[in-house]
Write a structure and sequence with these properties.
Elements (H helix, E strand, L loop, with lengths): L29 H14 L3 E6 L10 H11 L23 H4 L5 E8 L17 E2 L5 E3 L2 H4 L7 E2 L2 H19 L4 E4 L7 H8 L3 E2 L5 E2 L7 E8 L21 H5 L5 E3 L2 E2 L5 H7 L6 H7 L2 E3 L3 H4 L16 E2 L8 H5 L3 H8 L3 H21 L5 H7 L5 H15 L4 H4 L6 H4 L3
Parallel strand pairs: 3-12
Antiparallel strand pairs: 1-2, 2-9, 4-5, 4-13, 6-9, 7-8, 10-11
Length: 420
């Protein structure tokens, strides 16, 4: 673990020396693509590639644009209204990048591996614990952690960490070739995994995640939209779909959010329900959520391509031990100051304490453990009506745990599905 700081990005990677500027370059050539890819690796990304930008044509939209529009129209974006934004002509902004950025000609897609040497969500865990998605574990060192105490890591958010690396890469690019650029980490007018697939960084798996043959699917994506066209002699080879006949992810999804290979109904996804959904979670989806309290890793945990996925080692992205299989009761006991101390600067900060406690109440109910009844009864009188109602549901689930009809609501036994 590096214990020095650098406001421009990771300290374990140093950018390669810049070659002489070439003012004659006006497009992505094979040499320029190789040069930027090497810089991306030195800065701290694990992979990078270029994707062409398709010009939007309302009369003849691309297949990707059509699929995205159909997905939104089918209501599969749930309450994520930012995915539904349109321009003055009614075109979805995220269906093609040129709709929002007419000058765009290419996208530089960078990927960062966040896999950690830690248990999977489908592995046996201590009773009374919950699960926080792997990407949200990240932390950065403090003086105490540099002295050997890993529990003193401070929270970090991958958005900030990737954006810092991305802007450093952008500065190298624009120093060599003046061009228009825009950096995005989850906030841009495009679907990052679609751009990554176009760039050849991997294929869209049956779990709707980008899968790289060498890195697996534990990948965070960041993009630089540029005004540089792609030269005709730069071959962009899409990755072959290597999911084959495997259906482990579809079989393992507790809420059946994977409605078909490569297709997800986000409104059913546990990640959406526990992070993005602000209102009450539908009662028929609560039991399948199991012990997931922030996000879900199940469809990636069962994926064979992640069995040999490399372990990441990036500055400010070390896993915080206290977020791996955390105690439900300890999370339930958090007041506002304690929540801020634990999660300020992390992805959980945006979700907030109210939604986290709503999710914890569901996990407590699914545990069927009567030790949680005092906490849940206290929550029944909470000012937040969503938490109060969810606590009532959880109490009923615990008290009715001996009821055979209740047992039929149990989520699937996903650990067995991880076996070949």
């Amino acid at each position: 673990m590096a214990c020095t700081s650098n406001r421009h990005g990771p300290t374990t990677h140093r950018p390669a020396p810049l070659p002489p500027e070439n003012s004659l370059e006006t497009e992505w050539t094979p040499d320029l693509e190789h040069w930027i890819r090497q810089h991306a690796l030195h800065i701290g990304f694990d992979a990078a590639a270029i994707a062409r930008v398709a010009s939007p044509d309302p009369a003849q939209p691309t297949l990707d644009a059509t699929r995205f529009a159909d997905w939104v129209e089918a209501g599969r974006a749930g309450e994520m209204d930012y995915l539904k934004r349109r321009d003055d002509q009614g075109l979805l902004l995220r269906s093609e990048v040129q709709i929002a950025l007419p000058w765009a000609r290419s996208v530089l897609v960078c990927a960062l591996n966040y896999n950690a040497a830690a248990p999977r969500s489908i592995d046996p865990a201590a009773p009374g614990t919950g699960w926080i998605a792997r990407y949200a574990w990240s932390g950065k060192p403090t003086p105490a952690s540099c002295e050997g105490d890993p529990t003193t890591l401070l929270p970090t958010d991958y958005h900030d960490e990737l954006l810092r690396r991305l802007r450093l890469l952008e500065s190298h690019l624009t120093a060599r070739i003046p061009c228009q650029t825009r950096c995005y980490v989850d906030t841009g007018p495009l679907v990052e995994r679609t751009a990554a697939a176009r760039a050849g960084l991997g294929w869209i798996g049956k779990n709707a995640c980008l899968i790289n043959q060498q890195l697996g699917s534990w990948l965070l994506l960041a993009v630089i939209v540029t005004s540089l066209p792609v030269a005709a002699d730069l071959t962009l080879q899409p990755a072959a779909d290597r999911c084959g006949s495997c259906t482990r992810c579809l079989d393992a999804c507790p809420t059946n959010a994977l409605i078909a290979p490569h297709q997800m109904d986000a409104s059913l996804c546990i990640s959406y329900l526990t992070i993005e959904k602000k209102r009450s979670i539908p009662t028929d989806l609560r039991a399948p959520i199991g012990r997931q309290i922030f996000g879900c890793d199940i469809c990636q945990d069962v994926c064979p391509w992640n069995r040999r996925a490399p372990i990441a080692a990036h500055d400010n992205m070390s896993p915080r031990p206290e977020l791996i299989n955390p105690s439900l009761e300890s999370l339930a006991a958090l007041d506002n100051p304690a929540f801020k101390r634990l999660f300020k600067g992390s992805p959980l900060e945006r979700t907030g304490k109210k939604r986290l406690h709503r999710n914890v109440a569901i996990a407590m109910g699914n545990s069927r453990d009567e030790q949680f009844l005092p906490r849940l009864r206290a929550w029944q009188t909470a000012e937040d009506p969503i938490l109060a109602e969810t606590a009532t549901w959880a109490i009923d689930r615990i008290l009715n745990s001996a009821n055979p009809s209740a047992a039929r609501e149990e989520p699937r036994n996903t650990p067995l599905l991880a076996s070949p």
